[in-house]
Design goal:
The protein has 229 residues and is of the alpha/beta class. Helices cover 42% and strands 17% of the residues. The protein is built from 9 helices and 8 strands. Strands 7-6-5-4-3-2-1-8 form an 8-stranded parallel beta sheet. It binds pyridoxal-5'-phosphate (PLP).
């Protein structure tokens, strides 16, 4: 099993990323234990998720509900939905995901409240658009309190914090310092929302510098994706 080339490739890439997370945390004078690594497995097969699980990873991220549902059936763990939400997929998302990172629409929160089975829980990050780049998902920061109140008004939904994606082509320092300011204001009003989901393969170290508690890393562990997404 250990000699399987895919296993070797993933374990070596993973060790490098974990090392870089450790260094970034040290540089930011933060504890490594505050930072969860979500390995984004979108477009990669369940066999890769099994390898990651064997290597001690238990947080997995997916952008498409059908794909997430299929892999979550095969591999136990904490599953994170981080893709664009479509109302007609919400019911399905709730069957496999433990976290939704990409909530940016009050109507979707109402659907979740209606569709969430009795006794089930879902943890929510609200997605904020940085620099007004709404086309990559997310709401402007003025909208956040309204969405937060909507999440908090229902049983079974917990408000974890904020999520953002750095605008393409922009210095991530600028993006994540803006995010840190927004999060600081937001978490004064909503003290339960302490988490910050930010940072991908290209910018997770900068995100850690600005307080990320959840980094979502895919291609630098599993390889560059060739499909859409
Ligand atoms: C694909 C994706 C990631 C992971 O990106 P990589 O560059 O592969 O690390 C993280 N977050 C979101 C929202 C994504 O869509």
């Amino acid at each position: 099993m250990d000699l399987d080339p895919r296993h070797l490739e993933i374990s070596s890439n993973l060790a490098k990323i974990q090392g870089r997370i450790r260094i970034a945390a040290n540089n930011a004078q933060r504890s490594e234990a505050e930072i969860a690594l979500i390995v984004v497995t979108k477009t990669y097969p369940a066999s890769d998720v099994k390898i990651l699980s064997g290597l001690g990873i238990d947080n997995f991220g997916e952008n498409r509900s059908a794909e997430g549902e299929e892999k979550a059936r095969d591999v136990q763990g904490l599953w994170h939905f981080q893709g664009q939400i479509q109302s007609n997929k919400i019911k399905q998302i709730l069957t496999w995901a433990h976290f939704i990172h990409s909530l940016d629409d009050a109507r979707h929160i109402s659907y979740i409240k209606k569709a969430l089975p009795e006794g089930k829980k879902i943890s929510i990050f609200l997605q904020v658009a940085l620099d007004g780049q709404l086309h990559r998902g997310g709401v402007s920061d003025e909208m956040l309190p309204l969405l937060a109140e909507e999440v908090l008004s229902a049983d079974g939904l917990s408000l974890e914090g904020l999520m953002a994606v750095a605008p393409l082509g922009q210095d991530p320092h600028r993006a994540f310092s803006q995010l840190a300011r927004i999060h600081s204001v937001f978490s004064q009003q909503f003290p339960m929302a302490k988490k910050l989901s930010a940072g991908m393969s290209n910018d997770f170290e900068v995100a850690i510098e600005y307080g990320a508690t959840h980094v979502r890393v895919g291609s630098s562990i599993l390889g560059v994706r060739t499909g859409p997404l």
